[in-house]
From TrEMBL:
UniProt xrefs under PANTHER family: CHROMATE REDUCTASE, NAD(P)H-DEPENDENT FMN REDUCTASE LOT6
Record lineage: Bacteria, Pseudomonadati, Bacteroidota, Flavobacteriia, Flavobacteriales
Name the UniProt record assigns to this protein: NAD(P)H-dependent oxidoreductase
NADPH-dependent FMN reductase-like domain ranges (all copies): 3-143
SUPFAM superfamilies: Flavoproteins
Pfam families found in the cross-reference section: FMN_red
Source organism, top-level taxon: Bacteria
Length: 180
């Protein structure tokens, strides 16, 4: 049994990426799943002066330990102006300063969603290219378009049958990859 950590790269209290990653966590059977909110690990805006003067916060070390304890991660990233949010980038900056290889040997399912037709695909591509620098292995990815049209918050499920089939396939492939 593998330990899988689920999180969204958003700090919005109504994050659709968190809702998508929560749904994904409900689809994994036979493994230990943990869903966290990055907002529970408050980090200041990264800066060299801040790092030099204050060092690494307890929140950063707690988040780092959560990641280290996991065998795999499922991350859903949001998009601001065609790239990842400053919030998520800041989290990555802090974690990589604490340990440049903070994702070493971690298999990752990377997702994104938005209410647009591209489903935050630009943020997804950016993140797919960046996380391997920190040791991650991206084993699957999924961009979920037009969230409000294709996801039912009432039933907490994907309402578009084609997208549901694709999502299920990605989840199954991810589970298969982490079991190897």
């Amino acid at each position: 049994m593998k330990k899988i950590l689920f999180l969204a790269g958003s700090n919005s209290s109504k994050s659709i990426n968190h809702k998508l990653v929560r749904f994904a966590s409900s689809q994994i059977m036979g493994h230990e799943v943990e869903l966290i909110k990055l907002t529970d690990y408050d980090l200041p805006m990264y800066g060299e002066d801040m790092e030099r003067e204050k060092g690494y916060s307890v929140n950063l070390k707690m988040l780092y330990n959560k990641i280290k304890e996991a065998d795999a991660l499922v991350i859903s990233v949001n998009e601001h102006n065609g790239t990842v949010s400053a919030y998520f980038k800041n989290t990555i900056d802090w974690l990589s300063r604490l340990d440049r290889q903070f994702l070493k040997e971690k298999k990752i399912l990377l997702m994104s969603t938005s209410n647009g037709k591209r489903g935050a695909a630009s943020a997804l591509e950016y993140t797919k290219n960046v996380l391997p620098r920190f040791g991650a292995t991206i084993v699957e990815s999924f961009s979920f378009p037009s969230y409000s049209e294709n996801f039912s918050e009432e039933s907490n499920s994907i309402s578009n049958e084609v997208l549901l089939l694709g999502f299920t396939d990605v989840i199954q492939n991810f589970v298969h990859q982490i079991e190897q």
